[in-house]
Amino acid sequence: MTKSIYILVFFISHLLFSQQNNQLWKGYFSYNEIVDVESATGKVFAGTQNLIFSKALNTSDLTIYNSVTGFKPESITTIHHSDAFKKTIAGSSNGQILIANADGSVTTKVDIIEDVPVPPNKKRINDFYEHNGRLYVATDYGISVLDLATSEFITTYFIGTSGEETAVLQTTVLGDELFAVTRNFGIRKGNLTNPNLYDFNQWQTFDGGYWAAIVTFNNQIVATNTDARTYRYTGAAFQEVLNHMQPGLKLKTNGTELIVTTRNHVYVLNVTFSQVANITTIPDYSANFTSATVVGNSIFIGTEKDGLFSTLLSNPTIFENISPNGPIRNYIFRVKKAPNFLWAVYGDYSRQYNPYPLEEYGISKFSNQTGWKFIPYEDLFEAKSISDIVFNPKKQNQIFATSYLSGLLKFEGEDITIFDNTNTGPNGLESLETTFKDIRVNSPAFDKEGNLWMTNVSNANGIKAIKKLRTDGQWQSYSVEDVTNDPFGRYGPMAIDKNNTKWIPTINDGLLAFNENYSNKFIVVNSNTGNLPNNDVRCVAIDNRNQLWIGTYSGLRVLPSVDRFVTENQLTSNSIIIQEGDLAQELFYQQTILDIAVDGANRKWVSIADGGVFLVSANGQQTIYQFAKNNSPLPSNNINDIEIDGVTGEVFFATDKGMVSFLGISTKPSSDLANAYVYPNPVRPEFSGTVKISGLTDKANVKITDIEGNLVHETTTSGGTIEWDTKAFGKHKVASGVYMIFVSSEDGTDTIVKKVMIIR
User: Which ranges carry the PorZ N-terminal beta-propeller domain (predicted)?
Assistant: First the structure.
């Protein structure tokens, strides 16, 4: 697409989205990777990279600010809550500030990003400090000041000794003086009563040492030094109050306690600087600490990957994980909707299929009944970099997950098995290395007979790369030696069509098509013979008309019919040409396509690298939606995986910063109308969405009339669900009453009548 087309699509989709409310979206976020913890009156606040949540101590009321509620940070680095102004504030790595207001609205401040004249890599926000209605923002260039009443910026201080920008790590106020810990110039201070404080000459060096943090506690300056000690200033010199042996990560105070957090320690000191708590471990967790605070008699500890914990200050021996239920982390690489669970895996690989650094995360699974459950790494035979997952359509409780280092995992009920080069025989899985186990398995997919296919990076000879686990438990291996030039066999997720042809993306050789039922026939579709725009194929999808959609590093192609593999020896793909005014344009021209998913109406969801996701019509000629971070609840424009629940129409977007879903309407069509249903029913006055009629057959005729038989809506299904905006032919909302829904199959042999009550 050209830039002009993208602008038009964005405008249209922005209007579409503004007409929808966030009832159409759900968030499936992790609350485990805590970057900051803050105290407030009767509450504790915790921030992850992309959201904030708070819990009330007395009522345990939970409040969450995330992208679904309009809270969309770049990457949170610090948080603050103002009791006086009832505002919750997050600072980001790029200088963005988000303010969640008392009325639930979110204010996004980009003044630092747009207006401060320093390089973008110097706009990180390190800390917030509130004093007399002003918020002092410590950044990598200096200090900016925000008026908390108006949420407007007042001024900026560049406090280097020559007026240059310098990283300010934390600020505090004692008396009328503002103290700032800098990275390069020690502790600097300036008098807040000085109207010329914007002049760097008005600032003094309080101490020229190397400091990391600073607070005011018990009417004294307290600071953490880079020598892994914390000191108080006596009025004449700094006096050590704590040797914490590890570098200090956070120094905080709630007024009555001083809290020092290191990677493996949380120290709490009282107003006499006596140590009242030293927490070093959390039972059953090998947690690394990131931040901590005290509210009342409770200590709250944030961890790198295990969530937020609370324990009693008076007896810190029993810990409770109080993070909301969610997946183990926000970076989800692949997601799969099985009949009973939504599964998520986190191990990834680079564009070059490099799994290093290796991931040691387990697997998460979700159901509406139990919420998120986690299978830890230790229970998975310590399989590393688990990067894909598939369920057996003939045995729906049987799940397989592929590791890009450790082999293949099978889940069946509570039983877990691992397959590798030691237990799969001579035709089974192979190791890339001969001196250590390096069994890279990818692309799992089932054929219609129930055999499991996958790719396996073999040894440097590259002889056998396609593997089949048959229904009888035996393994078969197929060589690609004659059709690929890549000795390391780097293959993306495959698709298997109705003829059992395997369509396998490769990184250098285009698209590899293989079918063992035709004398082990191979066809390679590439840029030379198959009209691909790039030989790096990232994804493939087979639609409901047996067309093959091919996503490459540099654009999109479509193979008109997968049946051509059976009768032809060379295949040519086509681009999709769309009309924009008088111009003909190639759909997704030169765009890197990360994933393609086909919904029940044969429409395509297409993920573009750093470009969000598009929903296009069945033939690609119309753009129905374009969702990006700036016009939807997507937390990131990089969508690793798209998964569709064919029963409900829910579309899941797994991104590098969390997972959200869009409640679509394109479910798979039913074989008959016996299970058709209407929801919501009744439609109450406060409901602002659309009425869905689901469980329909494809191309069924749907007519809706009032109780007197007057027609108000008519349509034909494409898939298994239609929606009605409760308007008479899209013009005005219908009145309160009972409405009749008449459905007949395409051939008229199957009919059903439903009712829906609308209350205005």
Answer: 44-204
